[in-house]
Write a structure and sequence with these properties.
Elements (H helix, E strand, L loop, with lengths): L19 H14 L7 H8 L12 H10 L6 E6 L5 H14 L4 E6 L2 H15 L3 H4 L15 E4 L2 E7 L13 E5 L14 H6 L9 E6 L8 H8 L3 E6 L6 E3 L9 E5 L6 E5 L5 E2 L4 H6 L2 E4 L8 E6 L11 H11 L3 H10 L14 H6 L2 E5 L9 E9 L5 E9 L5 E10 L5 H11 L3 E2 L5 E2 L3 E5 L6 H10 L4 E7 L12 E2 L14 E6 H12 L15 E2 L1 E2 L3 H7 L2 E7 L5 E7 L5 H15 L7 H7 L41 H5 L1
Helix pairs in contact: 2-4, 3-4, 15-17, 16-17
Length: 662
């Protein structure tokens, strides 16, 4: 007889414990072995993040994509090329709070300097330590060894803040997270140890959970760390849909001819909108909807997800200071100044600034000559006439003199080129020059003008003594000048130095003063002004416009743009900017720079419209004052009269007390 084995009953796997205390301990013990669910940073900062005023943080949709990359296990590196006013600092604050409350780690933060590190600890990190989610797991007591200014220690991890300007800040420390704050502001080299950004990333090499992040506003094109990191990564841009046609596109500033931000009126805008790639007009009120339905798209997907890099600029932000109208107004304020425009490109567009030292195209300048202006005739608005001379020994000797006219609004116009031929050491050559600079020019409106000042270059070393001799004969009228090669010089014209002194080192009477000219700054200004477009349809000429009259030769224009600014990388790190010739002759460029420096020294940039009218002779003078149409009579002599000689003090003879007693 066949018998079947009895069926086995499955035993229950539940634990039965007695006592409330034992049950609570078992639950904690069992929870320790249960795998934790990883929460994305975007969810955590929406629930636990706080602003400076204690209010709950409400992230923008574009911020969520960047934040989630910080906590993605498949992404060990994140780079953010950004502008200001997009809330990146708040994302980093939330990441540090997330580390303390959810996922402890060793976090290392690098600031440009040690002073910046201390300010970051007080202003950015200390408020995070007071968030409720952070205080629930860690308490940072005042004057405690675990709560120092640049070092915070909590259970399972720590946070250290260091400065990138000291080599010792990169030694004897290993971290899981390395966060670079504004790496474009780091020094170019940590002395003999190399690039600070690369040294910082080396601190996490031995960590099994290494994570590196860098976020910065870019600076100079070609030498921007964050720009290079962005190019190495996935290159993700924010695509948003048009609310009218649904076309997905990247927001750009534009140039007024295609997609981009538009505004009106042109000079004092009261309304701004965005021009879609399909021609739709998008109002500012649609921005939140566009961002909510937007997405990040990688232009270099092969680099992700290992290295995700993002670009974001102010047009996406919903802060009031980043409204499209505010961006347009800011651009109008800075567009005429290359130095201010650089700040706009970096801080608003979030892009690296390409130096404007590239020479303008001479053909474009040749084609835009003013047909209504004649060579040799100053314009009707001219109130100041200045000459600049360059001495050449080659070809038997030659002195090239350029005449420049200046007027209100920093406008200037080339008048004519005068060439004086003859040996430089011959006195007759300089007498010819005296005759040329002493004559009159008749303006378009019939006024006779004379030169106010003449600047002559003395820096070549070959003609210095002849230049000094000629300048000594015309004190107060001729200025001996020398260009400074230092790019960092932020002065158009510096304090003069006396060149004629006695054996005892005293200044000689009727001596020569040498004026130092900041040529680099003036060349960059000139190239920026030459890039201004010629107005059309009766619009006004912009401030700083450079007028070239009809008849100006192509050779002179080529000399005007004969140099370009190049960035040269140094062997020990960093870079150096140098001006290099693109052709042999550059006399027109040097003379234009020296004439502009003379106009600045005369205070032409500060003259009011009434002062320019007075220079043009439009105001009647008192009968006792001789009439003149030359601005030279309006300016005091630059050489102040010598101070009166001090009377020598002769002490009175001391009385003889013997005679007085007698």
């Amino acid at each position: 007889m066949t018998t079947t084995p009895p069926e086995k009953t499955e035993k229950s796997r539940t634990f039965a414990v007695a006592g409330v205390a034992i049950a609570s301990a078992v639950r904690e013990w069992w929870a320790a072995f249960k795998p934790k669910k990883r929460v994305p940073l975007s969810e955590w900062m929406a629930a636990e993040g706080r602003l400076d005023n204690g209010a709950r943080f409400r992230p923008f949709p574009f911020q969520n994509g960047i934040a989630d990359a910080f906590t993605d296990p498949a992404t060990p590196q994140v780079s953010v090329r950004k502008s200001s006013r997009i809330g990146y600092s708040t994302i980093v604050q939330c990441f540090l709070g997330y580390r303390i409350s959810v996922d402890p780690a060793r976090s290392l933060i690098y600031q440009p300097t040690i002073d910046d590190a201390e300010k970051y600890s007080r202003d950015d990190l200390d408020p995070v330590l007071q968030w409720p989610a952070v205080r629930a797991v860690a308490t940072f007591k005042a004057r405690h060894r675990d709560n120092q200014i640049r070092a915070k220690r909590y259970k399972g991890g720590w946070i250290q803040i260091k400065g990138a300007n000291s080599p010792k800040e990169f030694r004897r420390v290993t971290a899981d997270d390395v966060l670079l704050e504004e790496p474009d502001g780091y020094p170019w080299s940590a002395r003999e140890e190399g690039d600070p950004a690369r040294l910082a990333f080396k601190r996490s090499l031995t960590s099994p959970r290494a994570f590196n992040a860098a976020g910065s506003t870019p600076k100079i094109k070609g030498f921007s760390r964050i720009d290079a990191l962005f190019e190495q990564g996935s290159q993700e841009y924010r695509y948003v849909p048009c609310p009218h046609c649904g076309h997905m596109q990247i927001l750009v500033f534009g140039d007024g001819s295609a997609a981009g931000i538009r505004w009106g009126p042109r000079e004092r805008p009261t309304r701004a909108w965005y021009q879609c790639e399909n021609g739709c007009e998008i109002e500012e009120s649609h921005k939140p909807w566009m961002d909510e339905h937007g997405e990040w798209r990688a232009h270099n997907p092969d680099a992700g997800p290992r290295h995700r890099s993002f670009h974001i600029w102010a047009a996406y932000s919903q802060f009031p200071g980043a409204a499209w109208l505010e961006i347009a107004r800011e651009f109008i304020e800075v567009r005429k100044d290359p130095n201010l425009l650089k700040t706009f490109v970096n801080q608003v567009l979030g892009e690296a600034f390409a130096e404007s030292g590239e020479a303008p195209e001479w053909q474009r300048l040749y084609d835009r000559r003013e047909m209504a202006m004649k060579l040799g005739t100053p314009p009707a608005w001219a109130g100041l006439l200045v000459a600049a001379a360059d001495v050449q020994r080659g070809g038997g000797g030659r002195i090239d003199v350029d005449i420049w006219a200046f007027g209100p609004g920093r406008r200037r116009a080339f008048v004519e080129r005068i060439e004086v031929f003859g040996p430089i050491a011959d006195e007759r050559t300089w007498k010819k020059l005296d005759a040329e600079v002493g004559r009159e020019w008749r303006t378009e409106d019939g006024r006779n003008m004379r030169l106010t000042r003449v600047a002559i270059d003395s820096g070549d070393g070959e003609n210095t003594m002849e230049v000094y001799r000629w300048a000594r004969r015309h004190p107060g009228f001729v200025m001996a000048v020398k260009g400074r090669e230092a790019i960092a010089a932020q002065q158009a014209i510096g304090q003069p130095s006396w060149q004629d002194v006695t054996v005892n080192g005293r200044k000689m009477k009727r001596g020569v003063r040498l004026w130092n000219i900041g040529t680099s700054m003036l060349k960059m200004e000139l190239y920026g002004q030459l890039a201004l477009e010629k107005p059309i349809d009766g619009e006004e000429y912009p401030d700083g416009y450079v007028f070239l009259p009809d008849g100006t030769g192509d050779e002179w224009i080529k000399q005007l743009v004969a140099e370009e600014l190049r960035l040269i990388k140094q062997r020990k790190g960093g870079f150096r900017r140098e001006w290099h010739k693109t052709r042999d002759r550059n006399e027109a460029l040097d003379n234009a720079v020296y004439a502009r420096a003379v106009a600045i020294s005369l205070g032409a940039d500060r003259w009011s419209l009434s002062r320019w009218a007075l220079a043009k002779g439009e105001y009647d003078r008192p009968a006792s004052e001789p009439a003149t149409s030359s601005p030279q009579a309006l300016e005091p002599d630059p050489l102040p009269p010598p101070p009166p000689a001090k009377k020598q003090w002769i002490s009175p003879p001391r009385s003889d007390w013997v005679k007085r007693r007698r």
